[in-house]
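Entry 14. Structure prediction run on the chain below.
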Amino acid sequence: MKFSAKQIADFLQGELIGNPDATVSNFSKIEEGKPGTITFLGNPKYTAYIYQTESDIVLVNNDFEPEKPIKATLIKVPNAYAALASLMEMAGSKHSQKNGIEAMSFVSPDASVGENVYVGAFAYIGAGSHIGDDSKIYPQVYVGEDVRIGKNCTIYAGVKIYSDCVIGDNCIIHAGAVIGADGFGFSKEEERYHKIPQIGNVIIEDDVEIGANTTVDRAVMGSTIIRRGVKLDNLIQIAHNCEIGENTVMAAQAGIAGSTKIGDSCVLGGQVGIGGHITIGKQSQIGAQSGIISNIKEGSEIMGSPAYPVKNFFKSSVIIPKLPDMYRQLNALEKEIAELKKNISLNE
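Output returned:
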């Protein structure tokens, strides 16, 4: 499906500069722009590409002023990256929408399914579960007993949602994710470990996205809670009884141990590891591969393993490669001082 520059500008309520009849049917990166595509300039590092891109339309921020002629038609918007996301969402909605229950799937007679729901082949919907309106359950999804899935959710192929878990509205759970598996709870008696029953559940609030092969464990008692607007990347582990605050984002391979509380609007880089029973204050930023072993105050910026303030981490990182030379210099200075002391004592 093709869209004209004028249609796009009207949809985004942006300022059009150039040919209003320019048409596009796909998206491209600005450095790889091709005719018939739309791209965007959000990062100033890529400014040079706007003068050579072959894309027919480029979204730019309102404050962008070209330094030389640009072949493409420009659409000025407050935030080019956000505008691109809106366009991609709109274009995706134009694609055919799946609905209906496919053959070879199983929906328990005791389950309820809302309007315009899609259930793919070999999916399983357990007794007492409810699927909200306009949600999509792709093939080979397992939904256990008494699960609640809200409206307009997308559950991709191979997701497993254990019994009693609750998923809010407008959630996306990507392939292979597991929601509600048992937490890692054992008691040790002499040389044997005894399993502690995990009788809680997982609650995922509205507008949450969970990446492929990420796991969120059920609570021992009560709930493991993923608050509204959280975005989890692929291959993340959220242990039992954790609570992840609203609009927090985590990059791939982060691991959160049991009963940890992470505040609202935090950012965790890839491979961050957080110990159990820790509180991370809201609006904290934790750099990649950091290891957190104690509570973190609100608004902290930390990095390292164990983690410490990010400015000190960077200062230390600069010094570390110089340590061998500094060590040799220190040894030389110690020898000089020892020789001076020896000479002083001989002259006294």
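The chain has a mean pLDDT of 95.
Filed with the rest of this week's runs.
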